[in-house]
Design goal:
The chain is an alpha/beta fold and about 260 residues long. The radius of gyration is 18 Å and the shape is globular.
Length: about 260
């Protein structure tokens, strides 16, 4: 078994409040203020070191409990911020995961990218491996591995080493630690094709201070959130979009949050 390590120690901390944003932000439409602030201190609260399955179960539960209108608003913000990201804005092709159940809505992103004439590829699982295939529309997707939408057999295999990969996941740390669903498909794919920029989408509660990850767990380089993007290699928060939210003002470990 591979040696385990913990990501997230001594990194900048972005405190997320019960409103699903930073600081004293307003409640999103349909959001419900929890009885205790700690219930939705989501990502950054101090918790006992969990195992991966405990983290997965907790994140799945929190996603299921999202109010429909709150989720829709957060998905809109994630889409906007992803499309503002330089690695995506300048891309000719993007490798995108097909959202399933209560994951962030990537079909909105798919529509926006194709409207901008950006080629989009979705993954398809075969045995223990996963490859990406060019997809022109949702009608080319059908239920595949574990019921997840996958490109049909008529789709051509993608070969775009410069394409950023938008990765799914259940939990992340500010320095790039990631816990997925346990299949290891993205880890193996990115071990074969490490040149891709690795980008994750995350709701506020999915950002944790530390995670139990292993040597084979490929970290992400950028995490798109509802307020901006975490640049994992620099431990800073880059403000994008409307530019109205607080940001990390230092690139050093232990960096502070500007008031």
């Amino acid at each position: 078994m591979a040696a385990s390590r913990t990501w997230g120690r001594n990194t900048a901390v972005c405190r997320v409040n019960s409103h699903g944003g930073q600081g004293g932000g307003k409640l999103l439409p349909g959001a419900r203020k929890p009885e205790k602030e700690e219930q939705f201190q989501t990502g950054m609260e101090k918790l006992p070191p969990p195992d991966k399955n405990t983290v997965r179960a907790r994140m799945r539960r929190l996603r299921r409990e999202l109010d429909v209108s709150q989720k829709a608003e957060m998905d809109r913000c994630l889409c906007r911020n992803l499309l503002e990201l330089g690695a995506v804005r300048e891309a000719e092709a993007v490798y995108l995961f097909a959202s399933f159940r209560d994951e962030p809505d990537t079909f909105r992103i798919f529509r926006e990218l194709t409207a901008q004439n950006v080629r989009v590829a979705f993954p398809r699982v075969s045995g223990n491996d996963m490859e990406f295939y060019w997809t022109e529309g949702p009608e080319q997707l059908a239920a595949g591995y574990s019921g997840i939408p996958e490109p049909d057999t008529a789709c051509l295999r993608a070969d775009a080493p410069a394409a950023p990969v938008i990765m799914p996941g259940l939990a992340f740390t500010p320095d790039g630690g990631r816990i997925g669903y346990g299949g290891g498909y993205y880890d193996r794919f990115l071990a074969r094709e490490p040149e891709h920029e690795r980008i994750a989408l995350a709701y506020p509660f999915q950002i944790l201070k530390e995670l139990p990850v292993e040597e084979q767990d490929v970290p992400v380089r950028q995490i798109v959130t509802i307020n901006g993007v975490i640049l994992c290699n620099k431990y800073i928060w880059e403000e994008i979009g409307n530019g109205t939210d607080r940001n990390w003002k230092t690139g050093q470990k232990g960096g502070s949050i500007s008031e």
